[in-house]
Amino acid sequence: MKAASMTARRQNLVSCHNCHLLCDAPVPVGKQQVACCPRCGTTLHSRKPNSLMRTWALVFAAVILYLPANLLPITITRAIGITQSDTIISGVIYFLHSGMVPIALVIFIASVFVPLMKLLILIYLLISVQRRSRRRLVDRTRLYRLTELVGRWSMVDVYVVTILVALVKLGAVARVDAGPATPYFAGVVIITMFAAESFDPRLIWDVMEDDE
Amino acid sequence: MSELMACHECDLLTRLPELPPGGRAHCPRCGCLLQRDRPNSIEKTLALSFAGLVLFIVAVSFPFLAMKAGGFEQHSNLLTGVWLLLEQKMVLLAMVVLLTCVLFPLAGILGLLYVLLPLHFGRRLPRAEVVFRLVSHLQPWSMMEVFMLGILVSLVKLGHLAEVIPGISLWAFAVLIFVLAAQTAVLDHHQVWERLEALR
Ligand SMILES: [Zn+2]
Description:
The N and C termini of chain A lie close together (10 Å). By secondary structure, chain A is mainly alpha-helical. Chain A has seven helices and five strands; from the N terminus they run ββαββααααβαα. In chain B, the strands form three sheets. A three-stranded antiparallel β-sheet of chain B has the order 6-5-7. A two-stranded antiparallel sheet of chain B has the order 1-2. Chain A: The chain crosses the membrane at residues 56-80, 100-129, 150-172, 178-196. Chain A: Its main location: membrane.
């Protein structure tokens, strides 16, 4: 037997999502598979259920939230009678102009680039799995691993806003409020994290078994 | 007899080799890390969890940052931002910050202590499996290190407006991040599950 075909599913085994114990595949009862890992109690699935549909739905929701998150103001600053609204991008531009390039880069990468790349990568993975692509299986698995790792760093700006709100309340002199983009922004981060979690990378490799 | 394991990223069945000290086993097909030799994992994780708990208590009970400008002084602690967001009626946002920077990391530390302390003495408390499962699920949602980056960005942002003075809590918080990172690195889930199973 070729190495490619020696998968748990082929051998009628299921690896527990949580503790990775190899279990016998549950016998389908009606349409539903009902079995729990004997060691940790997680429901057993050979593949995450409805992985593609759920990931598509979450990616779609994140794309929609991504627009208000970047277009609406993320902070509203009031100082000596002047009110100033800043979006993520206007913040980046401000830092570029004032010569703080590293900070501009951190904000741009974490808040604009990472979520966008993550969504594009997930869309690419979803389409390539649905088209039963056999190309670059290892690279695609690596891309998936990357989306799992970097997503949480996009939360940086939500925290920056929280800290600014807490610190800048100098009597009546100055005040920072969280802008309407902030909840959308947190939403994008959380939903893309769920999206990466609901994608099952084993789907990338399943095409190898179907070949034989 | 070495153990049979399925790669959780590509489902390939592999026999895990006996790992040399500090060795790692990767999936031969997709390269995913399958297992790593972590000697004394439970004891090390326990020590780091205790250290984490102490630092945590310091981080929430002392002043975090203070800002000084034009005769005014504004103090804050770790939770000031959360309360002010609540005042602004941003309840959801306040919850997100509270959960990811305070409650989830704390739950992770306490959960590990609940599971690992008895395990060290060869015992198992009720529902230890459920607690350990929750701890693994919470792990990606605990974002203290991201919060730290947020603090650095804010400091630069405010640097030209006012003088920002770090408090004891901020230092405790910074050390806590390293302790939690070390804890994640030494924790061997596989070993914990095996010990829990043996104690049933
Ligand atoms: Zn693999």
